Amino acid sequence: MIIVVPDALLSPSTLSRGVAVAFEREIVALGSADALRARYPHAELIEGGEGSLLMPGLINAHVHLEFGANRSTLTYGGFLPWLYSVMTHRDTLMLGCDHACMSDLCDTMLRSGITTFGAISSRGLDLQACSAAKQKVVFFNELIGSQASMADALYGDFLQRLEACKSVTREGFYSAIAIHSPYAVHPALMQRALELAKTEGLHVSAHFLESRAELEWLESGSGAFKPFFAE
Asked: Count of H helices and E strands in the chain?
């Protein structure tokens, strides 16, 4: 049992003072520090001191640990210029961030108060770091590819990564599926992945309507995405 005595306690709707928290794996009781000490005399006591704040853990719902070494390779300021720069540098974006690098990034998030994160995994290179992370992790195995001729190969690779992910059995680690986006995943691939998610009860994530160009492409096959796919 641990009793935490902060200067202030932030709940989803209230900032309170003079409230301490007793917890083991979950919160057991709230009350004044004196009352909780009397109730749990053998509990470890952590006093935050003046200016300390106790609050729920933060969630980073979408992080790419595999790209963790990249800092300024890409072009920013507009969606299509950024996307072209991703295509140009796609073979080098994942270089430089090995298991130690990705583990450090997990620890950095934890020090920032992020206690749960969604890992969008393109190749499964971050599985080891995520399975060993201290946080709760939803591990989204990403499916991407719009060419019909590559559909079977891409889906086979996706299934292999998903099966490897499902072999992780630690508490707080959850296998999931990321369909990259409606413009970057062939409809047949998307349908197979959604059917699998329904059958196995897996959560699904997707990029959706990130730009006007995407909306124009999905609605009418026109706009800035048309030359992009032609190339």
From this structure: 8, 12
Closest CA to 102 of 137, 145, 142: 137
| Residue range 72-99, pLDDT digits in tens | 888 988 899 998 898 888 778 888 899 9
Give per-residue burial for 90-106: e unless 16+ CB within 10 Å, then b: eeebbeebeeeebbebb
Split at pLDDT 50, 70, 90, the class of 25 is confident
Q: How large is the average pLDDT for residues 50-56?
A: 93
Instruction: Tell me whether residue 210 is one of the annotated catalytic residues.
Output: yes
Retrieve residue 141's tokens.
Answer: 């195995």
Q: Which of 148, 183, 203, 173 has its CA nearest to residue 193?
A: 203
Cα 90 to Cα 96: distance, rounded to the nearest angstrom = 13
Catalytic hit among 210, 216, 219, 231 = 210
Burial class of 171 by CB neighbour count within 10 A (0 to 12, 13 to 18, 19+): exposed
Q: Compute CA distances 150 → 22, 156, 205, 218, whole Å.
A: 55, 10, 22, 21
Three-state secondary structure call for residue 104:
helix
> What's the whole-model pTM score?
0.87
Given a contact cutoff of 8 angstroms between Cβ atoms, the answer to whether 223 and 212 are in contact is: yes
Check residue 231 and give its pLDDT: 82
